[in-house]
Amino acid sequence: MNPRQIGAFVGLVTLFALCLWTAEVPSASAHSGRTFSAFGTPPDWSAAYCGSLPLPGHGGVVCVMNDATNLYIGLFAIPDLVVTADDPRDGWVLFDDDHDGFSEAKEDGLRIKFAGVTDFRDTYRIDAPPLGTWNADGDITAGGTNDGSGATWVMIPPPGLRTWPTMTYFQFTHPLASSDPTYDFTVGCSPSFPFFPPPLLPNVIGANWGAQGFLPGGITGGFAYNVDDASTWDDIRIACAGDPPRFPAGDMAARLVKDISGLPDSAFKNGNGELRGALGSKMDEVAGMLVAGNFRPAANKLANDILPKLNPAAKHCWLCAIGPGCYQAGLELLAEINAVLGVSPEPS
């Protein structure tokens, strides 16, 4: 697998830095996390678009894609969560079905438990916060159905990830529209054509990723985000065939390109506005590499060619007359690319 893509946290910059990351105002219908969207079907995970998996105590990669029928989610936990193949481990995905930023009773969840054998459960939230708990035994205990499938195993990392000795992998499959509307989400793709009527189904849901297992030091892992605060969760946008992918690093790179293009001549060395186009072209090249799944070349170009030019304190800076906003954004983009690749977040 060629793991495509990334996640990221947006750096705060001052208003006088000129290279701004404009914060979106939170609303009841939006999340503050990252967006994943890609069309494809396993076992070809090369079609998926991935981001970093910020689990407590260790990292990993989360990959998301869908076809016309199912949603597919892969969690790669680095390092391996288990000491032996018989030690228990759990993988979870929690959903904000209606994408309202609140984790509510009867909203969907998926669980894979391994204790000698793999046990997949299509589950749900029993109560809303602050008393909320998740039914680990599944929808079938409350009159629902067990929709989807799951698998987990300890594996040697696929090509493109750092050569960790082993890693734990959870693969989830869930219908976009199951026969259990009480406890499952129902979503579909929204074609992006002018004058097309509104989609008959919602096309975005929130998601929180979790994995837990055992390492020599004891139990490790947990959830990436607060299980009670769905406004902080990531977004899954259901893709139609032919849709361009959405993924965190791609969004970050596109935003940086836009910010650079809007800078005044005075921001550049000696007021040379021609450097704006040259720098924008370099960032366009990085963005193209990311969309094509060429993350290692993208990381190398960003670290060795672009970041020194974004750094106002560097000897050969191009953005010499503004604050470090663009430079910080570039560092964060590089950190997330490297997190997905499984390498050090520091520039080379």
* DSSP helix fraction: 10-25%
CA-atom Rg in angstroms: 21 Å
CATH class of the largest domain: Mainly Beta
Taking all residues together, what is the mean pLDDT?
A: 81
Specify the oligomeric state.
single chain
Point out poorly predicted stretches: 1-18, 20-29, 344-348
Number of H- or I-type helical stretches: 4
Q: In the residues, how many domains can be counted?
A: 2
DSSP, total strands: 12
How far from one another are the termini?
24 Å
Can you tell me the overall shape? elongated
The third-level CATH topology of the largest domain is Immunoglobulin-like
Write a structural description.
The chain is of the alpha+beta class and 348 residues long. It has two domains: 35-237, Immunoglobulin-like, CATH 2.60.40.1190; 248-341. It is 19% helix and 24% strand. It is built from four helices and twelve strands; from the N terminus they run ββββββββββββαααα. Strands 1, 5, 6, 7, 10, 11 and 12 form a seven-stranded mixed β-sheet that branches. It has a five-stranded antiparallel β-sheet with strand order 2-3-4-9-8. A hairpin with a 3-residue loop joins strand 3 and strand 4. Helix 1 runs antiparallel to helix 2 and helix 2 (274-291) runs antiparallel to helix 3 (295-310). The chain is elongated. The two termini are 24 Å apart. Residues 1-18, 20-29 and 344-348 have low confidence and may be disordered.
